[in-house]
Amino acid sequence: MSVDVRSVWSHRALRAAVILAVLSTGWLAAQWPHALIHPAIGWIPVPLSAGLGAAVCFRTARLAGEAGRFWRHLGIIMLILLAGVISSAVDSLAGPDAPTQRSGGFTMVLYLGAVLVLVWALLRLPVRRRMITFSLDLAVVVCATTLVAWFFAVQQSLEVARVTGTVWTIFGILLMLFAGLLAVAKVALAGTGGLDRAALWVLGGTVLMGAGLGAIAPLLESRPYLNDCQLSIPVCAAGIVLAALVQRHATPASLAAPRKPSRPFSLLPYLAVIVADGFVLAGVGPDQTQTRILVGGSVLLTLLVVARQLVAFYENSSLLARVDASMLELRRHERRFRSLVQNSSDIFAITDAAGRVTYASPSLIRFHGIPADRFLGSIASERVHPDDLAPLRRQPAVPGTARTAQMRLRHADGTWRWFEVVTTNLLHDPSVRGIVSNARDITESRRYQDQLAYQASHDALTGLANRALFNAGTVQAVRDAQSSSSGLALALVDLDDFKAINDRLGHAVGDALLVEVSERLRTSVRPGDTVARLGGDEFAVLLPDATAAESARIAEAFIDALAVPVRAAGYELLIQASIGVARHTADCDASDLLRRADMAMYAAKELGKSRWVEYGPELDAHAVEHAQVAAELSQALDRDELFVLYQPIVGLPDGEVRGVEALVRWRHPTRGLVSPVTFIPVAERTGLIVPIGAWILRSACAQGARWARELGPLAPWKISVNASARQLLEPSFVATVASTLADTGLDPTRLTIEITETAVFGGGRALDTVRALHALGVKIALDDFGTGHSSLGLLRTCPVDVLKVDKSFVDGVTGTVEQEAIATSISEIAQALRLEAVAEGVETAAQADRLLELGYHLAQGFHFARPLPADEIAPLCTHPAVPNLTH
C-alpha cells in the first residue's frame, strides 16, 4: 500500500471515530431531559468505536517500528474494552432491573483488565533515565495528583459506588487516572521509548479524560437508561485513533533520536508539589480526618522530595567524581600528546585561510632552525620548493576533507628534503579555524625508490639505459616523430670478436672494455641522444631530430672513437665494431626501426666489420634472399647439389703436388654455380655448416684414401679441410673426425684441419676440440695467419703444425721492404718453431720467386692451379705441369 493510500485510510478512520464520539455525545444530550427512544440505540456507537480503535492500533503496530509492541498491546486493550462494552450493554438492557447503570462482576473484570494491561504496557516502555530517579519523580507526581483527585472526587466515591452498584468502579477510575498520569510522566520525565512524543501526550490526555468522564456516574443516577460508558468509550476511542494517526505521521529521525531537554531538570514534580500544597492549605478545616489525610499526604510528598534531593546529591557527587577522573585522564592525554608533538620527528602545523602559520610544532621549528616567535605568522609557501608550489595551492576545499601530496621543504642547512604532507581542512571547526598539515620526512624513502627505479631502467655495469628503458624511449620517440614529422634515427653497435677477448682474457677485462666503449659512445653523441646497452657487447643509440647527415656523422664518430686502442685492466686492446643505422619512415613503428637497424648491422659485419651501414630497402630484399638461400641450402645435400673441388698445394721450386685443400661448391638447378661467398655465411649463421662440413670431411677423406691406394707415393700427402668456429664448438666434432678416418681408412697424419685464429682466440671448448684433434694425429693449420688479434700468442697455447700466410701479405712480397716485412717475419717464425709455412694466393711467378728467396717451400694459388675436380688432380701428381720460375 502506498503512503498516500495509508494516509487517506488513517484520516477516514479518524473522521469515523470523531463522528461516533459526536453521535454518542448528542445521544446523551438528547436523552438527558427524558427518554425519547429505546435505550439500546445509545449503545450502538460504543462497540463500533472500540472496534475501530482496535483496528487502528493493530494497523499502526505494523508501521511503527520498535514501538509496534506498545501499539499491539493497545489494540489488545481496545478488544478487551469491546468485550467489556458488550457485557455492560447486556447488564444495562437485559438485567432484572433494566434499564440500569449497575454493572456485573464479569464486566468490571474486563474493564479493570483493560486498564491494568494499559498500565503494564506503559511501564514496559524504555526509560532513558535512572530508574530510581524516575520512580521518585513519578511517585511525587502520583502522590500530589492523588491528593487533588481525592479532594474533588473521593467525597463523591460513595455516590459512584451506589450508582454503579460496586466499589470496583472507583478503583477502575483511579487506575485510569494513574495510567493517564503515567503516560504524561513518561513524556515529561523519561522520554517516549520509541513512541512519538505528541502521540504519547495525546494518549495520556485521552486516558485522563476517560477517567474524568467515568466519574460522572452520580450525575446519571436519576436516568438509568443512560450510562457513562456511552460517552467515555467513544471519546477515548477517538483520542486513541488521533494518537495513532500522529504516530503514523512521525518522521524516523524524530523517533530515533531522543529530544534534547531544554533544562537539566523536570518541572513536573515541583509543579505537582506546589499544586498539592495549595490544596492542602485550602482543605484544612474542622474535619479532623480530612485534615489528617491532607497533612499526611503533604508529609509524604515532603519525604519523597527529600529522598529525590538526596538521590540528586548522590548523583551529583558521582558525576563530579567522574568529571574529576575524566579531567585527570584528559590531562594525562594532554601531557602525552604534548610529549608526542614535542619529540616527534613528524611536523605539525596549522595555517589560516591566507596561508599564514598559526601553530607550529617544535619539530618544524627545529627543522627550519627558526625561533617560534619568528616562524608564527610567516607564509608557509616561502619554505616550499618553487617546483612544488602547485600541490601546496591545491588545498582541500571541502570542510573536513584531506589531501595528500609530496613536496620539498628547505632544511636549516640549506638542503631540500622530501616530505609527504597530509592537509585537512578544519576551517569550519571553531577550535581550529585553519588547515592542519601533518608532514613526514620521506627523503630516504624517495632516494631508495629513485635508486630502485634507476637500477630497473639502467645497466648496472655501464650506467647506460637498459633494453627496457631504451624500448620505451624508442616507442615515445617514434610517436613524437610521427606527430611532428621530425627526423629520427637508431644505431645498433655490435663489438666485433668481443667474445674472444672476454673468454681469453677474462670477464674483468671484458667488463672494463665495455665500460670504456660505453664512455666513448656517450661522448660521441649529442645532448638529448640516448645511449643504451642492450646486453652483452651490443649497444644502441637513439638519435631524435637527426638528419641523414647528422646520423652519418655520429656513426663515423663511433668508428673513429673505437679505432683508438683501449686500455682495459692492464691490457691494450684494439676493438672494432659493426654499426647499423636505420632512419624512421612513416611506415615503421619502434619494432620495425630496431629490426632495420639490426639488419644494417649484420650487413656491416658481412662487408668486413669495422664499418657502418645504413638501412635501405635492398637489405629487406637481401634478408628475403638470405632466407630463401638458407631454405634451399638445407635441401642441397639431399639433392646432391654440393660437390668438392681440390686446390693443389705445391712445393717450391719444383711445383710438385704436396697436398690439396678441399673446397665446397654449390651447383643450383636454377641459380647455377653459387659462390661460396654467398652460401657459406648463410650456412654459418643457420648452423647448416655442421652437416655440410661433416659431408665435406667425409668426401675429402674418402678421396684422399682413394688417391693413396691408386697413386701410391705420388698421391697428395696432405688433405686439408676447413673447420668453422661453429663446428669446433660442436661436442661431437672430434668423434665425427675419428669415425670418418676409421670409415675411410685415411691415415690421420695425412689429414690437416684448417682453422682461423678467431675461432680459437677465446680458448674454451674450441681450443679443447683442436687439442683433441691433434691428439688423434691430425695436423692443425692456422689459416689467414697474421690477420687476427694475437697470432703469436696462439702459437703458445694452440697446437699448430702449419701456418698459412694470408694473401694480403703475399701480395706485398714484390713491393717495398716494408710491405714484405710481415711475410719475412712469418717465414722466420715458422723456421724457428719448426712449423710448415704455406703461402696462399700466389698469382705470379715473381711472387713465387720472392717467396722462395724468403724461405717458403710450400705455396698455393692460381699461379699453380685453380680448384679442380678430383679426377684432374691425379694427372698433376704423375705429370706435374710446373710453372716456370724466373731463376
From TrEMBL:
Domain GGDEF as annotated: residue spans: 486-617
What Gene3D superfamilies does the record tag this protein with?
3.30.70.270, EAL domain, PAS domain
InterPro entries, per the entry: Biofilm_reg_signaling (IPR052155), EAL_dom (IPR001633), EAL_sf (IPR035919), GGDEF_dom (IPR000160), Nucleotide_cyclase (IPR029787), PAC (IPR001610), PAS (IPR000014), PAS-assoc_C (IPR000700)
All residue ranges annotated as the EAL domain in the record: 626-881
Domain PAC: from-to ranges: 403-454
Superkingdom assignment: Bacteria
Membrane-crossing segments per the record: 12-30, 36-58, 70-90, 102-123, 135-153, 165-189, 198-219, 267-285, 291-314
Q: Which UniProt keywords apply?
A: Membrane, Transmembrane, Transmembrane helix
- Domain (PAS) spans 333-394
Q: What is this protein called?
A: PAS domain S-box-containing protein/diguanylate cyclase (GGDEF)-like protein
- Which species? Dactylosporangium maewongense
